User: Fold these one by one.
Assistant:
Number 1:
Amino acid sequence: MVGRKPGGKKTGGRKCGTKNKTSAELKEFYVSLLSDNTDNIEAALEELYEDSKKDYLMAIDKISNKVVANKKDITSDDKPIQIVSITGVKIIEDGSKELLATKTN
């Protein structure tokens, strides 16, 4: 049998929270590339803006995706996130606390 038994303890691999080295290096490369070529990029984007605002916005989006990490929602199971306003804290007899909130969306 290859691999570990179902339910067995994981051994090896990256520890939880360890950053992906390749992603960090790639991000550093793009940041360097962008910062070393700001004049050229600005000129090209200005020309693109004049030709097609749609293509200009798409280019900005593609550039930003190389530098800004895409965040994944891991808290709502793809359900709409409920935004609430905290209106107070209720202290219960046993000393525990309960947030008082109202939905805003």
Number 2:
Amino acid sequence: MTATGLPFVFEATGVFAPTWRMTTEGLVTHGQIFEGRDSNDAFAMILSTFALTLVVGLYTLSLTRARRSAQRVTIVQAWHLRQLLPNEPPRD
């Protein structure tokens, strides 16, 4: 939360130069890290955004598969443990 909110606080207090503003046309953003000069630069930015989205999606998919596998193993282990226990409690 801090990593996301702190830059906005720094912009509001004047520590960083503003990188966005609201206009009648909508949200306008600009930065100083990357300066695009032609359509190839825009294409590279779009392609890298899609690549990042793909990598994050594949990572999420691998986490989901690992979680499901761990749950499956836990369910099987619990079933095996129940088979080892008697059905009725011992009588005195």
Number 3:
Amino acid sequence: MFTVDTTAVTFLTLDQPRAETDFDTKAPKLDREGRQVFSLVVMAIAPGFKPSQIKVKMSTDPGPLAAGEKVVFPALIAQPGSWPGDKGATASRANYLAPKGVKAA
């Protein structure tokens, strides 16, 4: 697990945030502190790299967001994984989404 420096990365939303649910029970997914988990699909764009679509999970409701809206993740954590069929897959998690108008440090 490692923290990603997001200062040179632009994140654009591709869809509305969604509350995560358990596949079988459809019950809301909760984090270790009992807070609802939300996911947000974004396009990550960084100079010199191919744009990548990533799904970021967070334990705070990011509120309504429009497709194509620029968002900032001041603390993005990536966890490399190995799932069958995925080469170099990474899970991404943000502790929070910065308020609108806040720029990465």
